[in-house]
Fold these 3 entries.
Entry 1:
Amino acid sequence: MARRTPRNALFNRLRTPGRLAGFLKSASVCVLVAGLLSPLAQAPAAAAASNDYCGGQCSDILPPGENGNATLAQILLNQVFGTQPDHAEDQLGPYANLATGYSTLTDAKINNFFNDASFGVASDQVASTEKPAGRSDVTIVRDKKTGVPHITGTTRYGTEFGAGYAAAEDRLWLMDVFRHVGRGQLTAFAGGAASNQGLEQEFYRNAPYTEADLQAQIDNAVANNGARGQQALADANAYLAGINSYIDASDSGRYFPGEYVLTGHKDSITNAGTIDHFKITDLVALGSVIGSLFGAGGGGEVNNAISLIAAQSKYGVEEGTKVWESFRERNDPEAVLTVHNGESFPYAAKPDDAQGEALPDAGSVTQEPLVYDRTGSASTSSATSASATAATTTLSSAKRGMSNALVVSGKYTASGHPIAVFGPQTGYFAPQLLMLQEIQGPGISARGASFAGLSMYVELGRGQDYSWSATTSGQDIIDSYAVELCQDDYHYLYHGTCTAMDKIEQKNAWTPTTADGTAAGSYTMRVWRTKYGPVEYRATVGGKKVAYTTLRSSYMHEADSIIGFQMLNDPDYVKGPQDFQSAAQHINYTFNWFYADSQHTAYYNSGNNPVRATGVDAEFPVWGQAAYEWKNWDPATNTADYTPASAHPNSIDQDYYVSWNNKQAKDYTTAPWGDGSVHRGNLLEDRVKKLVAAGGVTRTSLVKAMADAALADLRAEDVLPKLLKVVNSSTVTDSTAAAAVTKLQTWLTAGAKRTETSAGSKTYANADAIRILDAWWPLLVKAEFEPGLGSDLYTAFGNNLPIDESPSAAHGPTGSHAGSSFQYGWWSYVDKDIRAVLGESVQGGLEQKYCGGGSLSSCRDSLISTLKTAAGMTAAQVYPGDDQCSAGDQWCADSIVQRTLGGIKHGKISWQNRPTFQQVVEYTSHR
């Protein structure tokens, strides 16, 4: 008898939650079962598996729950009555409760808020045992507490077959959705909601692959990796066989995900219709989505050029360049570093004499259209708005960073063993993009999280005596080339020859369904592709017509990283920190990788960092000419020379490591702006540094440090004290301003957290102070910088780096209700400028003083004026409401929503800024 099945409601955007169309729009919002809001009772400890060296001290959590499938009946019950399928949200309550429960945390209570991540399942905790498709070489056991699949195989094929079968049991609908996203075919599959249109456009612009392109990436990854490449291919085929076996079984047994009925792919009465089998190119399409979301650092060169031109127009070339560089903060000496021992890893530095720059003529840049021939609902204002947002997101360097890590050497822990609290911050979805599993078989021994549809290996998790995790790094593996046009707008000069661009198209059409009532519509997505990558902009350079292209080193190499993950899962490969680093070197996406075992910690920054031609500045577009190409670049395969592993930031056994998408190491430039004196990485650095200085770190104290930082308002903790220092430089006589200052100071004294008055109150302590700062920040930044910069340059810099990313902000790379906050903002600029005005020491300061034109009294007047305005704004003005919250509901505006990608809905939880999947580990022994 089949266990579970999916839900219906993808049709909300990945970032900003939207409403489901048709039937689902009017359905009631689900409510959290009260019992789930209480810490779960811990299961009896199981005898440790013989290959488990964690001693019961490995834990993990992944909300909302393991079960991401629901039958049509289960979807309807959820929509009408709020009932939940088994294990659909049983990890949401414990995860949410840490926000109010961490202050009294002890080691004994950790698994009230996390799962026991030991290998195996105690006999009295076995919920089900199955032999998928009747196979004798693999068993899937699911535990009672969370329903996580524990896959054990006696053959490699059987093990991977079981992994595919379990993945389809838990995430079939989601996997189907994302293989269509990766191919630019979401609207035809799931409906034409504006959010679906935007989503498929965002990824198609990044990776416009043909079927031949997808297959070539498989062939190349296999051919270039010897025996491991052949094993990866065999694993992938076994995994696919498992997925397809479940599709056939659920189809004939009529327990397939209900979304297939609601989107018109299956008939609930006759069972007519099909669920297409998965094929190997689907895995590449899925991989391209995940790589684009979390592992493709760089881009933004054209936006950089536009702001540089604006700065030079305002101040002149020499001074304007200095101003631009001071805001860019390429190598800020005050930036928090992951490798903090002073070691230098130069990459993408400003060249002494830039060569080949192709800056556009002022005002000539236009974005290349992606969508053509719109009909019906594709022509609505919401559809065109979604297209604009998708284009902005794709072309910006301010990509989703997310994820954090806190790792402490055993030298500073109470036990003498290293401790790590780390995980990816991948957003909140229903079902979740990641899924938990344990895989034990020949050459594989791991437990942890994997992206649905790519779970032939554990991607983030633990092995027998080690754990690993990642954060997005963001170093620049994307460059922009200006290709001179010839003949017409669709031919360009390549090495002196007029060459036709390739036209890649995807035509999509949709009609209303029960799930998505969006009216019929259609459009064509069209990408013009050159040897230097897809065309993203048009402009003139010195009067010559050019197209600006985008080339990333992982383009056409979406499958390459599979080898690194295969190694990380192999207990015979990873036996210590050096092996871990070697495995991470086989991952071509831009990530920071962290490692801990019972004796050692380690770090490695992955990614294929291209070796650029001498004099090329990675910040700006360069001419598409041989002299400025990556060293030994082959356009046929998009391969080049890459910087050696030793040149990537790396370390073994540093006293501690922190990462929250901050700067990796001295002289290592990342593509996003904002690596300055104030970064959310400081929230971890300050706390972990104190713990290490005191010594005796425990799992409890490190979890507390993470949880405390997760509730902190970065602006309040690190910038507000300096702002108030200016304001209080003389007595505040205005009563409105004085009252606001008192409230802000009281909040600061209380710790500057955004936290409930008590668990479940849905009301913040110090709510007025939080409202005031949320209103004040954009006002004070504008008043501080726009008069000096001028509106054009101020706007241009704002396009490079958003002003703010508070929890309730709907802009920025994550959008509202996404948890992740304070990654991108002008906090460092404000911090450096205010300190300069106060006459304090500033390393790597801005080129000029801006607040009050550098006058302390004028700066104070500006701050008090904007503070008074902010204090007078009502909650409804500061939190205007959206499809999730009524205007003025502060807690709700911040709250985390599990964004529906299927038919099952979940309740909101209070804001936390922490990893979605998270591990707490302390190994007691080693092989």
Entry 2:
Amino acid sequence: MRRSSGLKVLLAFVAFGNALAMNVDSIPVWHPEYLVRYNHVENYPDSLNNVNNSQLQTHGYKTMQVTVGDGGTQVDQELRLSIQGVVGDSVYIDALLSDVDRKAGNQTTATLQEVDQVYFRAESKHWLVHLGDLTWTDENLGLFSIERSTLGAMVGVRGGYTDVRGAVGTDEVTRISRVFNGVSGQRSGYAISDNGDYLAVVPNSEAVFVNGNKLTRDVDYTVNYAGGLLDFKGAKIPGPDDEIRVEYDAYDSDNLYNLYAASGKYRHPNLYLDVSGFRLENDRERMKRGSWSDVEYESLKKDKGGNLYRSNDSLSGGVDSTLLLKRPERTDRMGTRLRLQQDNRYYMDLEMAVNRHDSNSVSDDVDGPRGNAYRWFLTTDSSEFMKKFPVAFSVYGNYVQSEFEINDFQGMDHDWNSFKLKDEWDLDSAGVFSGDLRHDEFGMRFRLGSEWFANALWGYRQGEDENWNSSRAKVSLVHKNRKVMSDLGVARVSSVQDAEKERYQATGTTEFLQGLWRPFGNFDLRYTDIDANGVEDEVGYGKTGSGFLLVGKSWQASEGVETKLAKRRGDSYGDDWSDSLKSVVWTQTADWHGSYVDVEHFLQYERRSVDSSAAENSWVGELDSRFGNEEKGISGSVSYKLGLTEEQTYTSVYKAVAKGTGDVRYDSLTGAFIEGVDNGDFVYEGMGRNDSVGAVLASNAAFGIDLDWNPGLFLEIYEGILRDITLGGSYNAVGEDTTGKKLYFPASTPHELRKISSGTIDWETRLRWEHPIGLSVAYKPGGEYDKKLSSISYFESSFHHKVESEYQINENHLVGVDALFEKSELNALQDLEWNVRDFSGRYRFCFWDGFHVEPGGRFRDGEGNDDMDNEFDAYLWEASLRLGYVKPDVADAYVKFSAVQMESDGDMIPYQMMSGYSDGRTYRLESSVSVDINNNISFGLHYVLRFGDAEENIFQKLTTEARAYF
């Protein structure tokens, strides 16, 4: 299997097939009206269609909320100002100022992270100016590209066939690239950081590839920028055999960079010329002022190689040997690309690029790699259907020096991506990039008929001094038209790396493109002979896929099955064939969008075994539906989710704020966070990864249903009791188990919930009667059960009966009475159970065109005991008076004063039992004012004052808010 020297010579022109490095379908169609597309303004936002071309339009809002509590002040603000429109002689203006004061990771301004985004952009047919936040994107070359979020300025001019742009910016981000494999059945929760740590990702800076194919943001995937989690959305879920590559910018305050970039394009109908370049370097002056000490800067200047460490005067030797000192870097890249065509047929694509990297830009004694790269492609016919001549030749190749660092700033050619090297060339990327790289391919295409084509190609890859090499030859037969596309091919791959491999491969695909029923199928069969220093093995591999797609006017459905089978034998595995991989994946999707029903369904099941081990199952499924219409008397929704996969667990995250300014409090008696309180010390941040627990095999299921039914509307009865009643209810359950149980439906009873790792159940039924005279009564029995995955085995259950009644006597008088009966049990730091009865009443009198006065009262009592049979009981009386004023679209204000007397005989009681009140008397004053100056500006104020012998001291919290919409 040694490579003969004859393989290094140009054998003959062989086909350009679909496996060639540049897909022929991606070559531009050479029509002048397509090429000369820079004679008009492009890249207008989609919203431009809604902008009045005769003037600028301003839209946005500004809100500010200031909360002052006993422990300090909390400020939350949000601003978004957008100006768009066309002014003067077709000059398009786009300006944005956005300050959303959100969690880390959601900012887009690289160095002014307290402002989310700010930019001003003016563009005409012949020039462009962009100031502020920008993303410099240059993807014109095949050997390298750059996409970087920065803060600075960009200018450009265009005229005729020419477009020139340049940008200068500064940022505090690091470009990160991570490659990993999928997990069977896992659709969401992939950490894109190297070690799963919290990560702040620059929004919209990421690029996601699966098996070398770039995915579309918000269509195929979403990224949680605050934390760095990747969720897939498409019908195809990556598995263990699929390679996922994610590139993104992450905030790094220690990495201060300056960017200088420029690109020029010339687009003649017969000639494309691109010149691109950039310099990306650490800002040495800013780092000298803010990141380095004088001692560290001097050590960087005297650097001659080896490790450098951060200084620390308190340690022996004055350095901290556990913290490396990062050297300031500088990268220069420049390239040019020339594309020529003649007669819409002959085509040539030539490219050259240069890389210069300085690993310490302040030292004269430390340099870095410097290398070049070259790429070429020529063909006698670049058209898809070869209508002018039935035979076409093509040549493709590239030469990359190792110092060019091809994996950094990867270009659009993607010729050296790791998945392609392994899948098509039997090469391990880990051993490829140690030296210079060379790739040559020669191809030929034949037109056999109007819809039939034959392809053949031969390609050769080699490393420096041929320390590794691989050759690949393939012939294929292609049939394609508007209704169907098919491809049948055979290939031979021979490679030498750590082992000598010889592969024989047959592939085929077919897909119907039109019609109601669209079947598809594919296969990939491989036989590989391996010789590793005299140890000879054989590997057989087969992958098949088949299914169909049904497409209707407002619906579509698909079924698909994919199988994989790999066997091997030889000196390493024995004389008999043994299974190394067996996998079956079944995928089902359905979508239906109608007037009264919307349904979206996805289900994927995989059964997989590796190395003759026991088969493992994984699955993921989602069903979401909406049905009915409120005007028809019935409406509701149903959702169902199912999963079995190895994934990371999540838990609620609460952020500490200034004391007394939050709305979440920690109850040390029960070990629970209580939300919706006056004087909390925390706020709810969302769900986060529980990194104290590793990835585990988790089975999860969720089900939810909500239904409302009015018999009168449904049966078109407009008199009697059926007209007045509405029946309804809701049920939601979520369950997850990490102990090996399989969940196909979430636990539906507290007994079942206790048997799994975590989950919740809540249900409520509703019976409401509304009579035209103004009397309404609602009865709502329900229950809530919660088991948390925690070290204290938290489990809480409660069952309640709610009765709500109102009588609208006339326009100015309303009486309301409510009752609550609740039984709760809690197993946490202690085992507690208690019963609560709560009765409240109110009377509202409206007067003076908007004013109202509302006296009210409440009585609440409860009793319970702990696991030591220690009993506790408590009760409270509350009397309140509310004075308010409401005028629609103008003002909504009220002042409510309450006096609460709570008695518990000094017992320790759960916080929830008495609504957070302590023994003694509490006076509570609550005032709220919201004023709308006009349709665009409003102000709000909310003030809470609590005092009395039940309070430790006087507590007050003031929250002010201003809102402006324009």
Entry 3:
Amino acid sequence: MAVRVPPVAPWTRTRLRAAPGAACALALLVALTACLAAAFPRAVDRYEDAGLRRAVDEATARRTAVQLFAPQPGITVPQKQREQSLRAATLREQYARLLTVVERPLAADPGQSSYGVRTSTAQPVPDRWLPRPSGLPARVSLAAQNGLADHARLRTGRLPRTHGTVTAATSSVEAAVTAETAESLRIKVGSVIHVPGVERAPLAVRITGIVTPKDPGGAYWSAQPLLREPSLISLPSQGGDGDKYWLGALLLAPDAAPAMLGTAGNPWRYWLLAPQSGSLAAHSLPALESSIAALESGPGLRKARQLTDPELDVSTDLDDVLSAYTRLRDGVGPLVAVAAFGTGSVAVVVLLMAGGLAADRRRTELTLLRARGGSLPGVAGRLLAETAIVAVPAGALGLAGALLAVPEGRRSYAVTAAVAVTLLACAVLPVRAVIEHRAVRVHAARADLASGRPSRRRTVAELTLLVLASGAVIALRRRGTSGGAGVADASGTSASSGPSGDQLIALAPVLLGVIAALVLVRLYPLPLRRLARPAGRLRGAVGHLSLARAGRTSASTALPLLALLTALTTAAFGGSVLAGVGAARDHAAVLATGADARLEATRPLPGGLTEQVRRSSGVQEVTSVSIAYLAKPQDGAETVPVAGVSPEAYARLARRTGIGAFPARELLRPSGARATGDALPAVASPAVAERYGTRPFPVLLEDGSHVTVRIDLVRELTPAVSGTDFLVVDRAGLGAAAGRPTALLVTGDHLDGPALRKAAGATVDVQLRAEARARYVDSPLQSGAERIYAAAVAAGAGYAVLALLLALVRAAPERAALLARLRTMGLTRSQGRRLLVLEALPQALLAAAGGVLTGWAAIRLLSPGIDLTTLALAASADSAGGSAPLRTDALSLLLPAVSVLLLATGVAAGQAWWSGRRGSITELRAGDAR
């Protein structure tokens, strides 16, 4: 009778049941890393797309709409054919054909696009009831645009209609006007406006309705602003106010367009294609620019002329808007790439450490499998299956979480990133096992031995990384962070280094951290071993034993140090970037306002305003300034702003703001200077000082009085005047009229803007430094890049902490067994805690010090090639303060390093405390799985 053999449990299920905690930890790590890796490209796409759409929306439809214009048919064309070309049905058919010419990704918004006929020449009308500000007759432009009923609300009357077939000889038509046009030109329902005709009686335009736009900011109305609101046109003149006249638009019915042929307005057909800003994507910018170029002067224009008119012309400023956005994105992108590469490198190191920890935990098991005949492919395949059954679902879960958390952006990049993380997590353990167990051994080797001389392969690898890091630093210092800057070649042309160069530049801080980690791993055991010898002669064995154990390190220490130094370097670099951005915005805001708040008027301020402002909440000091912007030195034609100040108060303001500080005594006027005609001391800008020198010269002020000044001090900037040309003098040396304050510079904390504006009144302009600072972030591209950068730095710090914990967990069983053995020899619990803390302290201290030095070196080496102006200030902001270079931030250097040091010592002390609670018998059992 055959004996039935019980079934053998599957390998994977057995291994997962044997270590469920390790499997769950691996799944959590893979899911978190895959989620972050998949969310990053989608988050970048989201803020880049939002920035592009904001740029297009803020540029107004007048610039972004693709405008196609065609003149009226020539006089050689039969009259009926000319009239037919202007009718709504013909234009509608041509509009539908033109939509097919537009190539993706450029897409027209059918709800805001329009077409019609409009007179290109505004015609004066003889009706005297229309307003004439300077006696000149008002002018009108006739427009017959489609879709008026869909884009306007009827306020009074009805929409215009046509009666019968309208031709060039039609004597009267109906029209509507907007409420703004009706109010400015005093038009009412039933009014008749007579437009002069050509070889015929004037065309009578009867107003049948007054409308209000449903969406005044939409392309239907804003692409041609005259349709919505009239303009008061001023004629050029030699001096004084020129003559003015009103210009408005009359909205005809679409089928009434042929009547324009009977006027001198020179009607043009037009088709306005408004882009769908919601469908624009930053990653498709090259294709979008190609589509626009094809319409402006390429195959698209040729096809559009075939479909409409041979003389069709296309005009748009959308390409300029896209170019401005591209420059902003090119300035922001490389800085974000630095944070991404740094955090990604730390995450890769953590995954490698997790696989290494699993391989170390199972070293004895794998050695036994190889000794009993297990093949390398067989062992690796089992380990791969065992890891994949945990990592693949975790990676899929992380990918799903990223897609749900960041719904916008390209999915392909997110899937690729999550798959890469999952594959790396699956491959680490099998590859590590294959490398370590190529040779069959009877027992596992000791893990705490250090090689006396590193291998040649390690030396070559370190030298290769050194060359890469040096090349990255040199490239970044030579060409900056902008990928499009390029480097001039021998012929003088600009040659961009391409994507590979940009990636190498973004990796520069990471490579510096790698080099520092490798150097520390090689060097730091040497001083510890030398210190261990004199420590052995001291009383007690704790100091000597801790130094000896810290100096007997293995090559596995490289990964924790690499993670820590890379994270610390990235955190220092990123923290300095964010601190530099904030400092640049603060400086630019102070330059714009001159203080925490600025109250200024074109005329002298009311007498009691200074005291009212001084009593407002948060106000600490108020500095009165009289500014004459049109002062003329030496009675010439050139003007220079002259600021009259109180020297003591103004000197305190300059010191507090850090703008052009000077000693107050240098600006005090000499006693009786105005009465005797002596010159007033002045602070001048370098340009003014260069033009007028240091000799006294007269200055004609706005009130007609003269003052003689002498330039004693030169400063680049001053709080009272935001420009680079100025003179600052003692206000006491000016006349009574010229010395009256026109501006108040307010300093204080948490100023109440509404209270200041209420006290100032409607005639005084109030600017707050906080509001000016907020205006410098005018694009989601900037704010999104900052958030991504901060999140990347935080994630890198988290992974560094995780790397430190993994390193301690890896050494925890061996340390626990050591403490158990030493306790049997009489080691007390307090001595055990000191031993573990002192053993962990050298590595943590060296890592912290190395991180500080590496971060400082990275910033000093890379700062000449980095300008934070694009990220810090809005693209439209006036960068009066110059560039915003990258500078070292002490807090960003020291805080992460101190945190690592405290965490390492705290974990070591906690491990010693926990080991002391367990009995020595448990730790010393032979054969137990750790």
